[in-house]
Design a protein that fits this description.
Distance between the termini: 50 Å
Order of helices and strands: HHHHHHHEEEEEEHEEEEE
Number of helices: 8
Number of strands: 11
Number of domains: 2
Radius of gyration: 27 Å
Helix content: 40-55%
Strand content: 15-25%
Largest sheet: 6 strands, mixed
């Protein structure tokens, strides 16, 4: 029975899309031949400017643990880019600029493809079961966005007019009109500058390029004298909020220092990912790490491959029993390896 209820979200999406389409056919599309394009387009663009809400897929409390990153990150950043494109197109539409139609085409094509890609990846990776409070986005918001994308295509194809809005023609009002236009131009320059700054801040905070860049490392074992190497602790990674696998082993090497080594390791991309030694027997969720003491071993060296981390001489292995792959930016436990004592042996 639960498998059937897991399919309720696609039903909600399809049903609401049909309902919004009927509403558009009854109340919106009949206005297209009679109303200026700007009066219909600007509200649609303002609506899509709120698609930054898609970042909710990356937020703690908005989704359940286990949200597939293959869906969450592209959907979140795709929505953010669409919101910026929609908002940036508004001044061009209001001023009847020659760039208005190309700007709306770019927004509409990108935004439509983003929604279709999100629906596809959500289905492939079974994202609905981990939606949590973000459930309302695909159930209500996405159908409305799809229908308004359709309406925008209708406007672009059938009824784009580039007539100018009424302007003052009397001599006495000419200077006032020019001042108003100059003031409007300055305001939009400020808005565009703020958008650029926001994009830079968003890039720095989320580092989206790391979602598609697989950092591979193949560090060799940190000693050449195998006979003096002892295995102290050994653990196997399990997945947390993102798929994670491999083996974590703590060695005492020839000079007496201790090294944490990952082998056959693989995890997901993410911004500001660190390796923690956690004072807990295991870390199955985010709270297990947040509520325990931990020691930060530094930024992860790579998403895939063998890598070494030096342990301080004061690190108490009797207390710090778990290795966590921890995303500091979003407070997510990508995966963890609970450690077990190993008999002293050579590598």
């Amino acid at each position: 029975m639960s498998a059937i209820f897991d399919r309720v979200l696609p039903l909600n999406l399809i049903a609401n899309t049909a309902i919004f389409y009927v509403a558009a056919r009854l109340y919106l599309l009949p206005l297209v031949p009679r109303v200026r394009t700007q009066l219909i387009l600007v509200p649609i663009l303002l609506l899509h400017s709120t698609r930054h809400l898609g970042l909710m897929f990356l937020t703690r409390g908005a989704t359940f643990p286990g949200m597939p990153p293959q869906f969450a990150y592209p959907a979140a950043f795709g929505d953010l880019i669409t919101a910026v494109l929609a908002f940036a197109a508004i001044p061009f539409v209001l001023r009847d600029s020659r760039l208005a139609k190309p700007a709306v085409w770019i927004f509409n094509i990108f935004g439509t493809l983003d929604l279709l890609a999100a629906i596809t990846t959500a289905t492939i990776y079974n994202a609905p079961v981990t939606m949590g409070p973000a459930y309302w986005i695909p159930a209500f918001w996405v159908p409305l966005l799809l229908v308004t994308h359709y309406a925008t295509f209708v406007l672009l194809r059938k009824n784009w007019n580039s007539g100018t809005a009424p302007r003052f023609c009397a001599e006495g009002h000419k200077g006032e009109s020019m001042k108003t236009q100059d003031s409007g131009t300055k305001r939009w320059k400020v808005v565009i500058l703020l958008i650029i700054i926001a994009l830079f801040v968003g890039w720095y905070w989320f580092r989206p390029e790391r979602l598609v860049t697989n950092r591979r490392v193949h560090e060799g074992f940190p000693t050449i004298n195998d006979s003096s190497t002892q295995i102290l602790e050994l653990g196997t990674f399990h997945s947390g909020t993102h798929p994670t696998e491999g083996t974590a082993t703590i060695y005492r090497i020839e000079n007496g220092s201790r090294v944490l080594r990952f082998t056959n390791f693989k995890t997901s991309n993410g911004p500001d990912v660190h390796i923690y030694m956690v004072a807990a027997e295991d870390a199955r969720d985010n709270a297990s790490v947040e509520h325990a003491a931990f020691i930060d071993l530094g930024l992860i060296k790579g998403k895939i491959g063998e890598q070494n981390y030096t342990l301080g001489s004061d690190l108490d292995l009797a207390k710090y029993r778990t290795v966590s792959v921890w995303c500091k930016r979003f407070s997510k436990n990508f995966g963890a390896a609970p450690l077990m004592p190993a008999a002293q042996s050579t590598r």
